[in-house]
Write a structure and sequence with these properties.
Length: about 140
């Protein structure tokens, strides 16, 4: 009985420590997807690195304007991730690279009236324990 109590206490204390970089990165990715689906512009922008770029030419101001337009056009937004690969760089553990194939849908009401499938390439940087999106590139799937 004492052994069971000691193991329970030990496991409980182990769970109280800081989360692993992998767990924090996976949470940031999930938060990014949820913020888009919930149309929460401020939550999306909070996950962007101060030096964020998209397609090597757009910045966070562009992202803010694009999100605003997308959220105005669509009462409902769906993000379906059909494949994803994320790796933390072993030589530079503050950097992670992700690739994903996603389908984005938008709807004014209940039935989606727009959809597109994209291959995404994302670079994440660990900024004082918080993973932020540094760059985003995409190609439409044909």
């Amino acid at each position: 009985m004492r052994l069971l109590l000691a193991l329970t206490l030990l496991l409980g204390l182990a769970g109280c420590g800081p989360s692993s970089p992998d767990a924090r990165l996976n949470q940031a990715i999930a938060d990014f997807q949820n913020a888009i689906e919930e149309r929460d512009r401020s939550a999306v922008l909070a996950l962007l690195h101060p030096e964020f770029t998209a397609q090597d030419e757009y910045d966070s101001e562009w992202a803010e304007r694009t999100l605003q337009l997308m959220f105005l056009r669509n009462q409902r937004i769906g993000v379906l991730v059909t494949s994803q690969q994320t790796d933390i760089d072993p030589g530079y553990p503050e950097r992670a690279d992700s690739s994903a194939r996603v389908t984005l849908t938008g709807a004014e009401r209940f039935i989606p009236n727009s959809a597109g499938q994209y291959d995404l390439t994302l670079v994440w940087l660990d900024d004082d324990g918080e993973w932020l999106l540094r760059s985003l590139d995409w190609q439409p799937v044909r």
